[in-house]
Amino acid sequence: MTSRTPIIAGNWKMHNTIAQAAELVTALAKVENKNNAEIIVAPSYPSLNIATRLLKDTPIQVAAQDVHWEDKGAFTSAVSAGQAKDAGATLTLIGHSERRSVFGDTDEILNKKVAAALRHGLKVIFCVGETLQEREANKTLEVVEGQLKNGLAGFTAEQLNGIIIAYEPVWAIGTGKTATPDQAQEVHAAIRSYLTKTYGAAFGAATRILYGGSVKDTNVDEIMAKEDVDGALVGGQSLIAEKFARIINFNK
Ligand code: PGA
Questions:
Q1: Residues 211-219, mean pLDDT to the nearest whole number
Q2: Is 98 noted as a catalytic residue in this protein?
Q3: Whole-prediction pTM value?
Q4: Which residue among 15, 83, 133, 198 is least crowded, i.e. fewest CB within 10 A of its CB?
């Protein structure tokens, strides 16, 4: 950990009814936050609005899980960045590995989604990560760097100011297998050095890089202890208030 303000974000994926979402955010609103972390929850679209309304007087921020790249039009089932913002989101995930692998979001599509989010003033949590096959072929750093290069192509440091990067090895998501703290640190350091090289020293030093992939109440402390790990993007355990509360209050 460094002086960068830590971020603990919960990605609810396709879970929770509106009533369950309301119950969860109401519980989270009461949780102590001893590290003064930025806390983010990413409900699915139907619960964005209730979550925002219930969290209005709290520091907890609400993110969308994805946005479409167009502002409006004949895109059945899609939700635009403007609509997500209207529902109360101030951030959005872009490039989650489930979007990449299940829905076929390519680097080019993700690049357009980043543009749409920024156009509407949504902060971006841009997700990258390698598959097991890529890791075993020693391609992790190359893959992650390629995802950053292509996904963020064409934007200046000024436009990307405040972007959050989430490193989520695909083989660790929802599998119970977590990257070791050293594996996470190695990739986080490489991401930071890529950001420094591409956008300058101040940008590299200020950008928060989150680790995601089976973060739990039992492993968060050792992961957060690593120098270039600035936070966590949590799936499964973010659905359980007590578990997520423990993750928010990681021990330094
Ligand atoms: P997990 O999900 O914590 O359930 O592994 C993380 C994520 O997909 O963001």
A1: 96
A2: no
A3: 0.97
A4: 133
